Amino acid sequence: MKFLKGLALAILSFLLFLSLSVFGLVLTLNQTILNPDFVVSQVDRLDIPSLAGEMISQQMPQEQEFIAGVASDTIADLEPWIKEQVTTGIYSFYDYLEGRSENLSLIISLEPAKEKFKDNLWQAASQSPPPELAGLPPAEIERELNEFYSEFSEQIPSTFELDEASLDPQVMAQLEQAKQIVGYLHLAYNALIGLILLLILGIVLINRQVKGTTRQLGSAFLSAGAASYIGVFVAKQFAGTQLTQLDMPVYLQMLAPQFVTDTLAPLEMYGIGLLVAGVALLVVSFVHKQHQPSL
Questions:
Q1: Which residues does 263 contact at the CB level (< 8 Å), separation at least 6?
Q2: From the CA atom positions of the chain, what is the Rg in Å?
Q3: What is the value of pTM for the model shown?
C-alpha cells in the first residue's frame, strides 16, 4: 500500500511538473502573439519614418532622391494616421482569427495619404525643385508636377481592401488552419488550469499531511519554475545568435532583441513566480511540525 501511494504521488508530481511547464508556454502565447493588445503595443514603439526612410533609400535609385524625400516626409506626417490604420487592421484580423468575426474584411481609404503626398510634392518643389525642373518657369513646373502626380495617383488605388476574395486560396487555407490552432490553444489554456487544480487536489488527498503535501507541491513548482526560467535564458541566447543572421533593416535589427525580451517576459515572470511558490512550500514542509493535525 505504501509503495502504491508513493508511486501515485510520483506520477501525480511528474504530471504536475509537465502541466505547469506547458501552461507557462501557452500562457506566454496568450499574452503575446495571440494578444492583439501586445501586437499593437509593439507597433506603437516603431519609429515608422526611420524604418520607411531606410527601406526607401535602399529601394529607390539615387536619381529619384527628390521623390524619396517627399515620400519620407509624407510618411512622417502620416505616422499617427498609419498607426491608427494598422491598429484597426490588427484588431480586425484577430477578431477573425479568434472567431469573433466570421469574415475577414478590412477597408482603408488611401485618399488622405495621396492628398498629403500631393501637398508635400508641391511644397518641396516650390522650396527646392529637383535638378530636372530647376530653371523652368513656374507654369512649366506646375504642369510637370501635375503630370507626375496624375501618373502616380493612377497607380495607387483609392482604397486598400483585404478580404477572403482578395487573398490567394492557399493563404486562406493557411489562415483557416491558424484559426484551428488558436482555438486549440485557448482550449488547452483552460484545460491545463483544470488539470493543474485536479493534480494538486490529488496530491493533497493522497498525502493528507501538510509536510508531505507541501514538499511534493514545492518540488513540482520549483522544478517547473526552474525549467521555465532556464528556458527563457536559453531562448534569449539562441534568439540573439539567430537575429544577427537575418536579412532585415538595421532599424529592425536594433529593435529585435527588445521584442524577444518583451515576448518572453510573461514566461520569465511565470517562472519566477513558480520558483518563489516552490521555495515557500518547501520551507513550510521543513519547518512544519510532524505532530500537527493532518489535512
A1: 28, 32, 33
A2: 29
A3: 0.81
Residue with cell 479568434: 98
CA distance to 21, 43, 279, per residue, from 82 (Å): 39, 10, 48
Q: How many CB atoms lie within 10 A of CB 95?
A: 16
- Does residue 225 contact residue 274 with C-beta atoms inside 8 Å? yes
**Residue 175's closest CA among 93, 108, 85?**
93
The pLDDT tens digits for 240-274 are: 677 666 666 666 777 778 888 899 999 999 999 99
Backbone angles phi, psi at 81, to 5 degrees: -65, -40
Query: At residue 146, what is the residue type?
Result: N
What are the backbone angles phi and psi of residue 108, rounded to the nearest 5°?
A: -125, 125
Is the distance from CB of 34 to CB of 182 less than 8 angstroms? yes
- CA-nearest of 216, 171, 209 to 8 is 216
Phi, psi of 268 (to 5 degrees): -65, -45
Beta pairing partners, 105: 163
Cell 491545463 belongs to 192
**Judging by beta carbons within 10 Å of its beta carbon (0-12, 13-18, 19+), is residue 258 exposed, middle or buried?**
exposed
Whose cell is 539615387? That residue is 62
- Burial of 167 per CB tally in 10 Å (0-12, 13-18, 19+): middle
Backbone angles phi, psi at 105, to 5 degrees: -145, 120
What length does the chain have?
Answer: 295
Whether 295 has a pLDDT exceeding 60, the answer reads no
**Angle at which helices 169-207 and 79-97 pack, to 10 degrees?**
70
Say which residue the cell 502565447 belongs to. 29
**Pair type for strands 105-109 and 159-163:** antiparallel
Half-sphere exposure of 152 (CA within 13 A, CB side): 17
Q: For residue 249, what pLDDT is reported?
A: 66
Grid coordinates representing 90 are 490588427
